Amino acid sequence: MKSIFTMVLAGGKGERLYPLTDQRAKPAVPFGGKYRIIDFTLSNCLNSGLRKVAVLIQYKSHSLDRHIRVGWDILNAELGEYIASVPPQQRISEDWYRGTADAVYQNMFLIDGEQPEFLLILAGDHIYKMNYAEMYHWLLAKSADAVVGAIDIPIQDAHRFGIVSVDEDYRITQFTEKPAVPDCIPGDPAHAFVSMGIYLFRTKVIREHLIEDAREGTAHDFGKNIIPRMIKDSRVYAFKFQDANKKAVQYWRDIGTLDAYWEANMDLVAVDPQFNLYDGNWPIRTYQGQYPPAKFVFAQDYQGGRMGVALDSIVCGGCIVSGGRVQNSVLSPNVRVQDHADVRESILMENVVIGEHARIRRAIIDKDVVIPPHTEIGYNRDADAQRFTVTESGLVVISKGMKLHAAVDSSG
């Protein structure tokens, strides 16, 4: 793995996750209470033995850059090991990154400086577990110039993705973006291969293609431009996703919408979640804040209805549930739930305060929001929509630091 240089693309705007991406890049959005979305890709890198990782940042990158510096500065620079964020350098162009391939092309100086034999390109906004060493061994076994990570999904759902068509040897014959009639996997008519946005290249080969693509008026995208061109004159293979999550169903999520984000968090509080955070053989790392233990108080007053309790929930350090009830929810660090408050099926991010007698249901409340006493959220869609973002499913999203001055009258 020492011959691989890794670039993580983390510059996307994440517009469909707005307002969670109003003040941060999508890979920096909190997930699962204590993590950021990018932590899962970086943990995969570390667990796979990768020790040279450049995270290419761009839009609203401050919180992401800070998170990488304080949480991922864990390797030995004296040995040439690092996980580092790299902002746009404008060495080649004064433009923002025009596509995934252009982001790598504009940072060619990093590749030239490291002189790696192989280049691994990853997305920083997907949640999954994968040992990239298996992909590397597949490339060597096939004598491939490039390998594309692919996951098999039911063919009736495949038209929404980029489809990787392969022969019996898994050599890619065609790459098609969202075809009406997707090609099936040979011998498996019920499934199609979907690109995961994971690419492993022989550096000499991809370097030539990046330079050529930069001269042309393309979308400068790996899936749309680079891979289809490489198929014509290079050995390009699909690598079937080998899930390190150790569950019956494969887990790979592109958390693209607010509802998908909420559903993925709600999975984590299930009795048997699809995604396993508790596998000691595949740890998920992140920045660990110096918070005191979580605390639940007022159990002695349960007959009066005041009891601090959390059921089927994730509760992080620094939280105090003070006479309130939390159920099927995710609480990030330093959250307060006050007397007689009731929180159901919600995500509360860092420093959120839920006031006395407030009722919260199916909501995402971003950092530093104080919910006044007796406020009701998630019980009156029309009232919620007047002040907050509400999705088609009725999920309520409250922006980071939003000031609430009065309780919502649930009667309308």
TrEMBL record:
Question: Which pathway?
Answer: Glycan biosynthesis; glycogen biosynthesis
The residues annotated as site (Could play a key role in the communication between the regulatory and the substrate sites) are: Q58, W96
| Pfam families membership | Hexapep_GlmU, NTP_transferase
Q: How does it assemble?
A: Homotetramer.
- InterPro entries, per database record: ADP-Glc_PPase, ADP_Glu_pyroP_CS, GlgC_bac, GlmU/GlgC-like_hexapep, NTP_transferase_dom, Nucleotide-diphossugar_trans, Trimer_LpxA-like_sf
Residues noted as binding alpha-D-glucose 1-phosphate in the record, renumbered to the chain? Y97, G162, E177, K178, S195
Q: Which organism is it from?
A: Nitrospira moscoviensis
Biological role: Involved in the biosynthesis of ADP-glucose, a building block required for the elongation reactions to produce glycogen. Catalyzes the reaction between ATP and alpha-D-glucose 1-phosphate (G1P) to produce pyrophosphate and ADP-Glc.
Name by which UniProt lists this protein: Glucose-1-phosphate adenylyltransferase
| Every Nucleotidyl transferase domain range | 6-268
Q: Which GO terms describe its biological process?
A: glycogen biosynthetic process
The gene designation is glgC1
Q: Which reaction does it catalyse?
A: alpha-D-glucose 1-phosphate + ATP + H(+) = ADP-alpha-D-glucose + diphosphate
Enzyme Commission (EC) number: 2.7.7.27
Kindly give the PROSITE patterns that the UniProt entry links to this protein.
ADP_GLC_PYROPHOSPH_2
Residue span(s) of domain Glucose-1-phosphate adenylyltransferase/Bifunctional protein GlmU-like C-terminal hexapeptide: 292-398
**Keyword annotations:** ATP-binding, Carbohydrate metabolism, Glycogen biosynthesis, Glycogen metabolism, Nucleotide-binding, Nucleotidyltransferase, Transferase
Q: What family does the Swiss-Prot or TrEMBL record give for this protein?
A: Belongs to the bacterial/plant glucose-1-phosphate adenylyltransferase family.
Molecular function terms, GO-annotated: ATP binding; glucose-1-phosphate adenylyltransferase activity
